[in-house]
Amino acid sequence: MPEPILTLSHLSKSFGALKATDDVSLDLRPGEIHALIGPNGAGKSTLIKQIAGEIRPDSGSVTFEGQAIDDLGPADRARLGLARSFQVSSVVPGFTVLQNVMLAVQGASGASFRFIRPALSDRNLTAPALFHIQHSGLDGRETVKAADLAHGERRRLEIAMALAMRPRAFLLDEPMAGMGAEGAHDLTAILAELKSEAPILLVEHDMDAVFALADRISVLVYGKVIATGTVDEIRKNPEVRRSYLGEEA
Amino acid sequence: MRLTGALPNFVVFAALIAVAVIADLTGNPYIVTLATKVAIFGLAGVGLNLALGYGGLVSFGHAAFFGLGGYVTAILASHAASATPVATFPFTMMGTNEMLAIWPFAILVAGFAALVIGALSLRTKGVYFIMVTLAFAQMLYYFAISWPTYGGEDGLSFYVRNTFPGANTFAPLQFFGICATMLAITMVLVALLTQSRFGLALRAAKENETRVIASGIKPFAIRLTAFVLSGMVAGLAGALFADLNRFVSPTMLSWHMSGEIIIFVILGGVGRLAGPIAGAAVFITLEYLLGPISDHWQALLGFLLILIVLFAPKGLMGLALGKRGNA
Amino acid sequence: MLLLAEQVLNGLQYGMMLFLMAAGLTLVFGVMGLINLAHGSLYMVGAFACAAVAAATGSFWLGLAASLAAAAALGALVEIVVIRRLYARDHLDQVLATFALILVFSEGTRWLFGSFPLYLSLPPVLSGAVTLPGGLIYPAFRLAIIVIGVLVALGLFWLITRTRLGIRIRAGEADREMIAALGVDIAKLYTMVFALGAALAGLSGALVGSVQSVQVGMGEPVLILAFVTVVIGGIGSIKGALIGALLVGMTDTLGKALLPGLFARFMEASAATSVGSALASMLIYVLMALVLIWRPTGLYGARA
Amino acid sequence: MTALLDLSDVTAGYGAVQALFGVTLALREGEVLALMGRNGMGKTTTVRVIMRMLPLTGGTLFFDGRDIARLSSYRAAQAGLGLVPEGRRCFAPLTVAENLSVAARPGDWTLPRVLELFPRLGERMGQAARTLSGGEQQMLAIGRALLTNPRLLILDEATEGLAPVVRAEIWTAIRALKGQGVSILVIDKSLKELGSVADRAVILERGQAVWQGPMSELGEDVVNRHLGV
Amino acid sequence: EGVKVGMITTLSGGGAGLGIDVRDGFQLALKMAGTSDVELIVEDDQQKPDIAVQIADKMIQSDQVDVLTGIIWSNLAMAVVPAAVAQGKFYLSPNAGPSALAGAGCDKNYFNVAWQNDNLHEAAGAYANSAGYANSFMLAPNYPAGTDAIAGYKRFYEGAAAGEVYTQLGQTDYAAEIAQIRNSGADSVFFFLPGGMGIAFMKQYAESGVDIPLVGPAFSFDQNILQAVGDAALGVRNTSQWNKDIDNPANAAFVEAYQAEYGRLPSLYSSQGYDTANLLLSAMAKADLKDADAFRAALEAADFASVRGDFAFGPNHHPIQDIYVREVVKEGDVYTNKIIGTALEDRGDAYAAECKM
Ligand SMILES: Nc1ncnc2c1ncn2[C@@H]1O[C@H](COP(=O)(O)OP(=O)(O)OP(=O)(O)O)[C@@H](O)[C@H]1O
Ligand SMILES: Nc1ncnc2c1ncn2[C@@H]1O[C@H](COP(=O)(O)OP(=O)(O)OP(=O)(O)O)[C@@H](O)[C@H]1O
Ligand SMILES: [Mg+2]
Ligand SMILES: [Mg+2]
What we know:
The complex is a heteropentamer of chains A (249), B (327), C (304), D (229) and E (357).
Chain B: H1 2-25, H2 29-54, H3 62-82, E1 85-87, E2 93-94, H4 99-121, H5 126-146, E3 156-157, H6 172-195, H7 197-207, H8 209-214, H9 219-245, E4 247-248, H10 255-268, H11 275-290, H12 297-311, H13 315-321
Chain C: H1 2-31, H2 39-57, H3 60-81, H4 91-113, E1 129-131, E2 137-139, H5 140-162, H6 164-174, H7 176-181, H8 186-209, H9 219-233, H10 238-264, H11 269-294
Antiparallel strand pairs in C: 1-2
Chain E: E1 3-9, H1 16-33, E2 38-44, H2 49-61, E3 67-69, H3 74-86, E4 90-93, H4 99-102, E5 110-112, H5 119-130, E6 135-141, H6 144-156, E7 160-167, H7 175-182, E8 188-191, H8 196-207, E9 214-217, H9 223-229, E10 237-240, H10 249-262, H11 268-286, H12 292-301, E11 312-313, E12 319-331, E13 334-347
Parallel strand pairs in E: 1-2, 1-3, 3-4, 4-5, 6-7, 6-8, 8-9, 9-10
Antiparallel strand pairs in E: 10-12, 11-12, 12-13
Helix pairs in contact in E: 1-10, 1-11, 2-3, 5-6, 8-9, 11-12
């Protein structure tokens, strides 16, 4: 079994009396999609935020490529190669689609203190950006401001930006949401291809996508991992069916 | 695409030059002085705009940097006049009358102040940032008022304008030329800066900090850099303003001054390169034209400003440019 | 010892006065999220209205009513004609517009009332001094200000957190379009609340103006002080504004009273007074800077 | 029978960009109408026009026989339109309780009923909406709209981000609402669920209604052509 | 041939009242003289030093005025005057008299027709002695004019200091200071708090129940301010070089004409504007401005009927004049002052010796 790229050990975070994540340990291995599912408010996004460094866990630690990253801030973690997408699209509204993706490329490249050369004529930024725009089905929309995009288009932009960072691991928080049937379908294909480049920790409520994509699934309920296993194992788990899937599976 | 973006800025700048030159030719030195004032406040505004317009850092304390630039100028000049040293420790430093020697000092002092104030203030955001920067400027202001060495509230005169190689700085048009040149250089630099990678990160941080961080860029460093550069430009403007009046006083440090520069920026159009120049020009022209009409000209000015806000949502430059993108 | 007690009381009282001056701003700026630089002007309008009506009728109380009415009416007018068009805009447009309003109001007032200060004095019930338990002689109006300040604080607190109006206004601040789409006439509410904020500014103008001076420009220092108070306390929090005000009042008063003496211990007397007083004038700004560096959203402001 | 909601040849846009190029649709009292279309085709724009959040540049808009094209948003809402907007738009600094009560109007839906539908919200009453999880915010947005007791409920991707169990409950609730005679305009990506609830569907493409008809007639070819699945 | 006069003064904002009075007094004198030889240009400095400098530049460069006047505030005067006189213009000050311009920084073309800034404070000190005060509490804002005020007071005052407090410029609440006064054991309070500061202080002082007598310079007791202070000012002694009841024909004519023209009583500032104009007219009658030396000599002679009585220039072109003690009284409905004595006679100023010209 290959060494995990990302390991969470015993992460806990409370908000007042509420334990949003409660002693969570999991890992993400090269080449896999590890899906994280669970009821609303189970603590999935909170966990992503702790991995990305936006929230400090109360206890526990995160190891990334063999290095403990607990003392790093979110920007440093991103620079190390942990790219995340947001559950609620978080793009730069006043920027065009192209500029948004360029920003992601620039961030990953690490060179932001260049003052003279216009960014728009910097092929090191524009070429990868245009590639990822096309890849995410936004071609033709490069010069539209992000604020003027339809909801689903903005979701695609969110994905394009994560891809453009060419990270070592992805943290995707509900990437399918708002995409529409067609979009979800396209994205499923993209992610299936992407996982060989970098493994993906996928938070998602779209079970069709999860069951189609996931190599492993962990189920989070009230902040605790109640089960981890393959698609089939999870599908059959009665506790998961009751508290999460309902009639569906 | 870039050319159409630059053109309006060029037009505004050219118009300012034209006004000054024509006024000089037709024997209206005062109009030249007003044009100089527009250039200087325009410069301060272009500096502030770097922080405020592109970085979203609404500094209500830029008078601090403007005033420091002014005080550095006046202190060096007055010591040169009295041939006394400015400081004897750690080394003896004499005053000077050379603008080219004064400016680097003014810019450095302002930049250093901006570094300190910025590093502390940037912990806060939005209105809180407005108020902390105000607080620091007010501290300097009250200090200047009550510190007797350089005149306190009375201010400090140095009677003759500082010199510039090859120019007669006392001739209004020549002094205007110096100010306009500094303005032009700064505008070009700021234009480049805002389109650069740095500018991309800066503008992104204004609109969505979380995204910038998630992209691996630390907004604090970006913002602090912008703030310091912005303070340095304001310091240079302050140095020029001191020379325009041959006099500095704590009013240069007061919140009214900060407010005035902000008003010029907003009036001209936030985040528009030539916006502050347009804003300063219109404001100063209105002051000049309305003054003689009535003792209550400020009310008229107020009404006109309200009309401008209501009908020119993106400032004067926005009005002139119509719906086109940000220049 | 009595002196120190008196100075502490003065600090409290000054804090209450600041709270009163900032109360309208707490509502308009803190709760509605509107940067209203004309707050000081509304304060001035209240004072002038009170002075004019009190002079004409001989009754301070009628003047006080007039100050509320005049400031509220002007506030409503301003909201409908100018401010309303700016909610959807950048905050900075509000800065420019309300700055312009300062010019209009100041010169308008000067045009109506002339350039000289007006007479406005307290009614007999509030004037003179009373002896407090412990032998402290204290001006009656200062005690009155404490009482009125507490009442205003309670009223505002109740309004903002306990009434549906308050909830709606805060919702409107968060997402104006959405609250309208839920069937709330937010425009009308905003006008009302802005007018209420203006009325509070006017009220404090009349009350405070009657023990200070009623003149054009009286609103300017108030503007800055009010913003300082609201921001130290944390935007949107009435409790914060109250505590911020008391803190500023205490710091300012005790700073003035104690600093020169403190410096005199290790400095030559005249230098000590001037350094001490210079520092005392900066003190509230030092306080604000420290508070905000320590807590970037003020004492009770919402944390991100 | 006249329609409860009637759009005819509606055009609208954002500044210079036109987004709707003549949308015509009608929704009858008591009906559930599905509004479908790919990303960016104008569904939300249509909703914004109906809610009077965006002006019409042409066409007519009637609700309950009344011309509401010129009404302001709050009046349209008071006339009986209730919205669960795209992207939730909860009032971030307000608590859950405040969000729910802010615009509540008396009627069938009361706070206890909403909390029964979403027990999760009951646990979080005092918490600021800003700190809720995505799904909790979605529940809040739905609850908030229900409490205005609308005659026509508009759900713009109301099930986005909800866990499967909760999603199923929402559909159950929609059926119940329909049973009570509430009319519903629903946008959702789940064809399966829409098929079981909606009476009719309208498909938008580039700002125009390119297909409309009873849900039962929505064939695979139409879906493939216009929804791209 | 005529003389072109540029008046830079404060006509808008909170300090406008002073500038308006100076301007009105000046214009009244011109009108009464019936002369058309003086062309007067008035501009508003908004009480901002940089604006004042720019207006001065304009008046000198574009309007080519011969004489400048009008500035109210010391800091504005310091910004404008040195540069203006260096360019050979005459400057006649109707109000501000900062020490720098009276001493080392004096100039042959600078004339002050009001007072050296310390004068009224000095007179207050002298009065305190004569009133038998031996333990004064002193209060002034923390800026140069404030420190000068207390220094000026102490120049003549011989008693002890019960306390010396510098307040913040623009401060409006004086509870802390009044508490200090109450506890200081002082027998008198000297204060210099111009404008709104003084109004606020006096009202609060009156409410505080402290009854230690106040003295101060005329600025807080001027005609236009007194109405705003009301009863709180009654009985307070203050020092001034002018009052409307000074008994001389020039003053009587002035007071009457001023009321007729503007419908209000003249203020200290009105009188200073009026005297400034009359000084100018007197010099114009004697010499041609083209001949600067002759004109200067004519100004130095100060051969005009000052409304304050005897008036002469000292070696530094600052007044030598009597300074009176006034008391605030109520005449009918109007609060005003009446002279109750003379504090200093033929007082020049403390800086004349430093002036080399
Ligand atoms: N700052 C906070 N203060 C208090 N409670 C919080 C805070 N942030 C999150 N919570 C609570 O923590 C719980 C976990 O939230 P989280 O966003 O991680 O859920 P989630 O699993 O992502 O749910 P969803 O699928 O609905 O997005 C929720 O109940 C939420 O209300
Ligand atoms: N605020 C806006 N400014 C300018 N254009 C906009 C704006 N909002 C939407 N648009 C544009 O209008 C068109 C229709 O958008 P709309 O939001 O109605 O689509 P939608 O069908 O709801 O899509 P989605 O499924 O992604 O939510 C799109 O091309 C979009 O880019
Ligand atoms: Mg989540
Ligand atoms: Mg949509």
